[in-house]
Amino acid sequence: MTAAPVWRPFDDEPLFVPELLLGPGAIPTDLIHRIVGYLTAVAQTRSAPLHICTAFNALHFGFDVETHGYRAEVLTPDLFVPVAVQPQARCVLPVGTFVHLDRGGRRSLLAEVVARYGADPDVDVDGWTPAELSGAPAGVEQSDGTRTGIERVILDVQAFGALNAADYSELSRLRRQVLDNRGHLTGPVQYPAGTDGRDDVALYAAYLLGPARPLLLGGPLAELLTDPGDEQVLAAALHQTFDTIGQLLDGAAGLRIWNGYAVCGDRFTRRSHEGWPGLPAADIDDVVATVRRSAPNPRYTAVWPLLSSRIPAGGTPDSLGLTGAADIVVHTNLVAADLADTAVDGLLPERVHLRADDPWQAGGVWRTQREPVSALVVATDPRIPLGLGHSPAVDTFEMVVPAIEYAGPGTLGNSDRPAEPQPEHVETDPLGDDDNPDEKQLGPAGRRIDEVPPGPTPADTNTTEGGETDLVVVADSLIVFTVALRESHWEAGELPLPSAATGVLGAGPLIMQLHHDGDTLDDSEQVQQINRSGATLTGVSWPWSFYAGIKVTVAAARNATRISVTTTLLNQPLPYGDQYRWDADAAILAASIGAEPPAADSAAMPPSPEPLPPGISERQRGISQLQPLIISALHRHGEQGAFGARRLTGPQLLAALFGPELVAPPLMWQVVYTCDRLVDAGTLIKEPGDPAEDGRPSRLETFVWWPDGTARRSGHQLPTRAEILAGQVREHWVPAFKRRLQPGHQASDTARREYAAWVLKVYGPSADTRLPDGYTWVRGQLRGSGEPAPLLHLAVPQQSRH
After folding, report:
1. Residue 272 has what pLDDT?
2. Which of 327, 342, 368, 773 has the most CB atoms around its CB within 10 Å?
3. What is the rounded distance in angstroms from the CA atom of residue 55 to the CA atom of residue 383?
C-alpha cells in the first residue's frame, strides 16, 4: 500500500479541518493518518523537536516540509513580536511565537520560538538544584502580581527557510548584541499575573487570543467558526484544537514524546548510537549516570548544566548552539525516562527511585531518593513530574503516622495518658467520589479510613496575660489559639503566647502571615518577619484599624517557620461604634474606651459543634479554628480563576499556612478534613483532580473559594467547551485559503476582489488588501460539494509583456 503524499500548504486544501475543533473522536481514521503523517514529516524535517504549539503553527500557518519552512510573504511579519536589545525584563515568549530579531540595523531575521526553559542562577554548574526550586512557579512574585525570572529561549532562525550569507552575518552580529554565544535568547522575563509561567500551551493560547489575534484570525481556524468574533467561542475552539493536536501527537506511533515535545523515534535511535558532532552518545549516558546519583536525602539534578559543561559555548562544533540545544535536552530526558522505566517496584538496581520532578527548570530536573520511598510516589509514572522538591508534603501521604495523644491544659502531647482509642472502621470516603463503589473504603491518597489519623482532641483552654485563650491540639504538631490583644500589645508590637505554644515554636525568626478579615493590608503588613522572646512574639506591626481587645486566631505548627494569624469580621459592629467591626473581648475594649463593661452572662454556654454529615467520623471533623485561616490562605495564595475564584490543593494549603518546608502528614489530614467541612457548609467547592494515567481518580483534589455566592453560582454555570462550540463549528467546511500559482500565472481580478473583501472583513479598512504575488484566492466551500473546478478559474495565465 502506497503512503499518501504529505500535505503541502498553499498547494493542497487546508489540513486544518473542522474536526480538530471537536476532538480526536470526531476525526475519521484516514484523516487522522493524514494529519499524523504530516506532523511526523514536520518533526523529521525540523532540527528542533516538535512542540504542541509548533505543531499547531504547522497546521494553521502552513509549514512546508519540501521548502523546510513557513512562507513569510503570506504571514504578515509586521505582526510578529520584535526582539531587540532590551536590558530590562521582556515579556515571556511562549513556544510557537513568531519573532523578528532586530538589533537596530537595516536587516532583521525572522524566527520561531521552538523551546523554552528556566535558567535560574541557583542551579549549580554540576546540575545540583535546590529542592525548593524543583517544581516551583517560574520566577519571583512582584508587588503587582506579576512574576520575574530568567529563561533560556531557543529560536529557529531557519523556520522561514534557509539562511543566506547576509543572514549568517546578521546572526553573528545578533549573537554579540541580542543573543548569547549559543544563539539563544537568555535573560530576565516577566510573566503575567495569574498565569503559570511554565505552561507554554496556555501562554501561547493567551498570546494568540490577545496581542496576536489578527494573526490568528487570518488563518483557517476563524473560517471554521460561524462567529469568530465571539471571544468565548474562539477561545474554546483554540484550546480544544491544542488538546486535539496534543492527543494526536501522543498517539503517533513514530514519535517519542517528552513534556509536549515530539521527536521521531528513528532519529532518537540513531542519535542514541551516533550522538552529535562534538557530543558522542557516551556523553549523554554519562549525564544520565550523574542524574541517577543519590544521596542520603532526596537529590535534585538538572540536565542543562551537565550538558553545557561538556561543550564550550560558541565552540566549533557547538551541538548545543541554536536549535541543537532543544534536540539534545529532549533526547537526554527521554534517555533518563527510559532508565526510570526499567525500575522494578519503582527502584533501580542500586535501590534508588528515579523520577522527573520539574520538566522546565534548567532543561529538566530529576529526583533520586533511596529507599524507603512513599508508595504514592512509586505508584506514579516516573515521567510525570510531581514537583516534590517545591511541595514536599505530596511525598508524605503514605508515611506511617503515630496515634494522637491526649494533650491536657498547658501541655502539648507530652502526657502519660494512653493513646486515644481508635473509632470503628467507617465505610465512607469523605475525600473520594461517593459514586465510585471501588473507592468507598479509601481516604485521601488511597489510604483506608482505618489508617487515617484521628482528629483533634477536645478544645482546651489556657490563659495568657491577654485573657482566655482557646486551644486545639493535634498530636505534637499543631496549636491553634485565639487571643484578645490588650492595648499594650498593640502599641508594643507584641503577640502573647499561651504556655502550650512555647513548646511548639522555635527560638529563631518566624514569618507571620496576617489576614485582617474584610480589610486590605499593605504587603509589609500581610507578611512580616518577627521574633520570639520567651512567651511573647515581638516585632509585630499591627494594623492601625486594630483596637484593644481585638481577637486574633493563630495557627502554628511544630518545625514550621511560618505562622498564620487572622481576625474575624462580625456581621454587625460591636455596640461601641461602627469602627469596632471585628470580634473582640468586650471587657477589654470597654475598659480601653471608658465605656460601661458588658454584663456577664453566667448562663452562656459554649457553642455546640456543628453536626457532621452522615458517615463522617468525629476524627474527620477538622479544626474549626483553622477555617478562617484557610479562607485567608486561599484569598492570598490561591490560583486565580474566573469570577475571582481562588484554588489550592491540600498540600498547597499546608505550605501556604505553615511554609513549604513543613512535612507533617497528621496536619495535612486535618487541613484537608477542615476544607471538607467548609465544603459541607457551602463555603468552598471541591473539584476532583485530573485522572491518573490508569484512569483512576487523582487524590489531589482542589479546593475552590469564591468571594460571594453570586460568583459561586456563576462559576458553577460555566459551560463546557462542547457546550460553547455546539452549533458554532462549520462542519465539513474547507476554509478559504491562498493557493500558490504555477509559474507564468497570476490571480484573476475576481480573485483579487474577493481577497480584498475578505481582508477588509477580517482586519479592517486600514489593512493591505493586495494579494501576494504568486498566489490566488480560493473561496471556502463544503467538502465534497463539487465546487473546486470553477474556483480554479480565479487564476488566469499571466500575459506576456513586450
Report:
1. 95
2. 327
3. 22
pLDDT of residue 444: 34
Q: And the C-alpha cell for 676?
A: 471538607
What is the pLDDT at residue 718? 62
CB 49 within 8 Å of CB 143: no
Burial of 614: CB neighbours in 10 Å, binned 0-12, 13-18, 19+: exposed
Report the number of secondary-structure helices (H) and strands (E) in the chain: 23, 32
Q: What residues in the chain have per-residue pLDDT under 70? A: 1-3, 86-87, 104-106, 314, 375-376, 392-476, 600-609, 661, 663-665, 689-699, 708-718, 784-802
Secondary element (H or E) of residue 368: strand 365-370
Burial 567-593 (b: 16+ CB within 10 A, else e): bbeeeeebebeeebbbbbbbebbbebe
* Gap between the Cα atoms of 677 and 686, Å rounded: 11
What is the 8-class DSSP label of residue 797?
A: E
Does the CA dihedral 754-756-757-758 come out positive or negative?
Answer: positive
536 touches 457 (CB < 8 A): no
Q: Can you read off the three cell numbers belonging to residue 451?
A: 489508617
Query: CB-side exposure of 409: number of CA atoms within 13 Å?
Result: 8
Q: Convert the pLDDT of each residue in 616-659 to its tens digit.
A: 777 788 888 788 888 888 887 888 877 778 899 888 888 888 87
Phi-psi region of 197 (alpha: psi -120 to 50; beta: other; left: phi over 0): alpha
Strands 562-566 vs 510-515: parallel, antiparallel or unpaired:
parallel
What's the confidence (pLDDT) of residue 657?
84
User: Do 290 and 306 meet the contact criterion of CB atoms below 8 Å apart?
Assistant: yes
